[in-house]
Design goal:
Elements (H helix, E strand, L loop, with lengths): L2 H18 L10 E2 L6 E2 L7 E5 H6 L15 E4 L8 E4 L15 E5 L2 E3 L12 E8 L13 E7 L7 E9 L3 E13 L3 E12 L4 E2 L10 E13 L4 E14 L5 E5 L4 H5 L9 E2 L6 E17 L2 E18 L10 E19 L6 E22 L11 E24 L4 E22 L10 E23 L2 E9 L5 E2 L12 E2 L3 E13 L4 E13 L2 E5 L8 E5 L2 E14 L4 E16 L3 E2 L14 E2 L4 E2 L6 E12 L5 E12 L2 E2 L9 E2 L2 E12 L4 E8 L9 E5 L4 E6 L7 E9 L1
Parallel strand pairs: 6-9, 13-17
Antiparallel strand pairs: 1-2, 3-8, 4-5, 6-7, 8-9, 10-11, 10-45, 11-12, 12-14, 14-15, 15-18, 16-44, 18-19, 19-20, 20-21, 21-22, 22-23, 23-24, 24-25, 25-28, 26-27, 28-29, 29-32, 30-31, 32-33, 33-36, 33-37, 34-35, 37-38, 38-41, 39-40, 41-42, 42-45, 43-44
């Protein structure tokens, strides 16, 4: 990465700011709820990246995957269905096909923890802000969150009547629609808000098979309703309901490299490092339906606030993995039906914010049930061994996860300038796992048949110690030491009954962090930075038996890993009409101790594979670029005698080389890339409307979202592509009343 270029740009920014600030306005205060109370971002001793809903709308970013281009160090990994999606922060995230393992990066929407990423927002249309909390966050939020947290806040009902809509149209027939209405239903007593959205997009992967379906489209809609009842001056209740539906053909990878003479090679489909086409007579379909109900009660006890949050989530996720880049396939084809039910209850007491000692304390209950039916079909016609459509394995699993916890955090205001905080949580987890795997004669089953019915439990504490000191009126330094926790998980893969590892041990992170949060030049420049070092013991991950056909996956504890790095965020209002922001993340995430890791496909003894295992101690973690940066500048040009301003914004994103494979296959490495996005248009001075034209990936820089492979049929590498893997154009209109 050209780090010297970024440093020169930042240095120039700092040099010109004292000259420019005489005509600049102040930066707006950023309010977060990272510690279960509303606070200024600059007062919270945690590394946090915040993206406002307005910024997401202006940049036409509508889904979680888009955050990876706005928040360096945040990585999103797509799956073959919504249930397989994954988030990584500081290079750490759960990469497992086992649906009964919790994610290392948690997601909380409107104070409700989500047990799976498919149950969180699929769309950012009605989002007020997104907080990316780095490092262990399970002390205060839900359960687990051993690597970080995505804390999402959507808009609440307003006492004034407001309404608005937003629509955009882009390349590939991308259409985003959103509308909302908010205001009083019964004056001074009952407030309401309703919002709806729809997102559609044509497939981005072209299928060259005559009459075959193209792949990787977008077709989803949803809505959210909120009612707030102001019962008395001291007591209010809010009821929230969210519905999400999504159908898509996802997620097909285009062949990048094949083995000469293999099945993949004989099929004659498109292959190449910039390939975005397939040749396939079948298709993959996915469908997700989510309903989330929650009720939040707030009761003021003098200066104290008692809060109760009850929530129920119901998810149904269907995935039919059919397409695999071949006309006559030799790869497994899947059907999966997954049903999630989750109930959470939180009771929390928040003290006044101005005492010598302030605190948040509470009790938490979590229950999740996952029912999964999985069917694998093997079509061996491409190998001339059997007729197509043979059912090779069935996998029926039921998992229950119940957790009880007490949590709290107290802050001692030692002096006007120094503070000491201690937070902790004690968890008791119970797991139940039932599974039946069946295989059939005459096929190639990926696992022996068997049944299992077992239970497990665990109890453990997690805690965080923080010390803060104000070195100036608007500058604070802090240090923290945290020990996190992610509870045990069960192996719901077909290997579960016979792998010997039905349950995996808890995942235990230990994290050290030093940081500074500062504002300068009368709050026209904001500079926040953090340095960290974290270790993870018994990291939970899926692994694959090298060379096995069909693929054999199993759940394991991947020894120890560590991640260390630096994060920097700069915001500056250079003049009244010109603002810039930049952020940088350096992430060094490695397996520190994994001597018996699985080999990658076709790995030789000379390459380190001995008796089916390799030593990955010191090797790179998957999906974790070392360097990533984001730089944006926006200029507003007032138009004389007109009620609107013209504007132009240029955003630059850079991502370093990425290893996508847990086993560190050198063929599954993505090249570094950088993209430029340009936005220009007009915006009303009173904020009532905005019309813009945009170009994403202005210079048409090809890049991959991820790379995988299936060596047994010669598909050495295949790549999944983002929507903006090539230049895209669009126009958007936004209006608010």
């Amino acid at each position: 990465m050209n780090t010297s270029r970024f440093a020169r740009h930042l240095g120039a920014l700092l040099l010109i700011l004292p000259v420019a600030n005489a005509q600049a306005q102040q930066l707006e205060e950023v309010v977060v709820t990272a510690q279960k109370r509303s606070e200024s971002l600059q007062d919270v001793a945690i590394s946090i990246a915040v993206v406002s809903g307005a910024e997401l709308a202006d940049l036409n970013k509508t889904q979680i995957a888009d955050l990876s281009r706005l928040v360096p160090g945040f990585t999103f990994s797509e799956g073959t269905s919504d249930a397989g999606r994954n988030i990584l922060i500081r290079g750490i995230g759960t990469n497992s096909f086992s649906r009964s393992v919790d994610l290392s990066v948690g997601t909380v929407v409107d104070n409700v923890a989500s047990g799976s990423l498919s149950g969180s927002v699929l769309d950012f249309s009605d989002v007020q802000r997104v907080e990316v909390l780095r490092g262990p966050q399970g002390m205060l939020f839900g359960k687990n969150s051993s690597a970080g947290l995505l804390n999402i806040t959507t808009y609440n009902p307003t006492p004034e009547l407001t309404a608005g809509f937003r629509t955009s149209y882009g390349s590939n027939d991308l259409v985003n629609l959103y509308g909302y209405a908010s205001g009083p239903i019964v004056e001074d007593t009952l407030l309401g808000r309703i919002s709806m959205y729809s997102n559609t997009m044509d497939p981005i992967i072209d299928n060259q098979y005559p009459g075959g379906d193209d792949f990787n489209d977008r077709d989803e809609w949803g809505g959210r309703g909120k009612l707030r009842w102001l019962i008395t001056d001291d007591f209010d209740a809010q009821f929230n309901y969210t519905h999400i539906e999504r159908k898509h053909t996802c997620c097909v990878a285009a062949l990048r490299q094949v083995t000469p003479g293999s099945v993949a090679d004989r099929e004659g489909g498109p292959v190449g490092p910039k390939n975005d086409k397939v040749l396939d007579n079948d298709t993959s379909k996915g469908e997700t339906k989510v309903d989330i109900y929650s009720m939040e009660l707030n009761y003021s006890l003098g200066d104290y606030l008692l809060t109760s949050i009850s929530a129920y989530t119901n998810e149904n996720v269907y995935g039919a993995a059919r397409a695999d880049d071949y006309v006559r396939t030799a790869l497994p084809l899947n059907d999966s039906f997954e049903k999630y039910e989750q109930y959470t209850q939180e009771l929390r007491l928040t003290s006044p914010a101005d005492g010598t000692i302030t605190y948040v304390a509470g009790l938490y209950y979590f229950y999740k049930k996952v029912d999964r039916e999985f069917y694998r079909y093997i079509d061996l016609y491409g190998l001339d061994l059997a007729a197509s459509g043979a059912l090779s394995v069935t996998n029926l699993s039921k998992t229950d996860n119940e957790s009880f916890a007490g949590f709290g955090q107290a802050t001692w205001n030692i002096t006007d300038r120094s503070r000491l905080s201690l937070g902790g949580r004690y968890n008791f987890d119970q797991l139940g796992h039932k599974q039946t795997v069946g295989s059939f004669p005459g096929t190639l089953p990926e696992a022996p048949p068997g049944s299992i019915d077992q239970n497990d439990h665990d109890q453990a504490g997690s805690w965080r110690l923080m010390i803060e000191h104000d070195i100036a009126e608007d500058a604070m330094v802090y240090a923290s030491y945290a020990k996190g926790y992610k509870g045990p998980g069960s192996n719901s893969l077909p290997s579960g009954p016979t792998s010997g590892e039905v349950f995996v041990d808890p995942e235990i992170p230990t994290s050290y962090e030093l940081g500074v949060k500062s504002q300068w030049f009368e709050n026209r420049l904001r500079v926040n930075a953090a340095a960290y070092y974290s270790t993870f013991k018994d990291f939970q991950a899926s692994a694959q038996v090298a060379g096995a056909f069909p693929p054999i996956f199993f759940l394991t504890n991947a020894g120890e890993l560590e991640t260390q790095g630096v994060e920097l965020e700069v915001n500056a209002q250079l003049t009244e009409n010109f603002a810039v922001q930049g952020s940088l993340a350096y992430t060094d995430a490695t397996f520190s101790d994994w001597p018996d890791a699985p080999c990658y496909a076709r790995q030789t003894e000379a390459q380190g594979c001995i008796n089916g295992t390799q030593d990955l101690s010191g090797a790179r973690m998957p999906n974790s670029p070392k360097w990533s940066t984001y730089l944006a500048g926006t200029y507003y040009l007032p138009i004389p005698s007109m009620p609107f301003d013209a504007f132009a914004s240029l955003n630059v994103f850079y991502r370093d080389e990425v290893q996508f494979d847990t086993a560190n296959n050198p063929l599954l490495v993505g090249d570094p890339y950088n993209t430029f996005d340009l936005y220009t248009g007009i915006a009303a001075q009173d904020g009532s409307y905005r019309v813009q034209f945009y170009v994403q990936n202005l210079f048409d820089q090809f890049y991959v979202a991820s790379i995988g492979g299936q060596e047994v049929v010669g598909a050495e590498a295949a790549q999944i592509l983002d929507y903006t893997y090539k230049r895209r154009f669009g126009v958007s209109i936004q209006m608010d009343w």
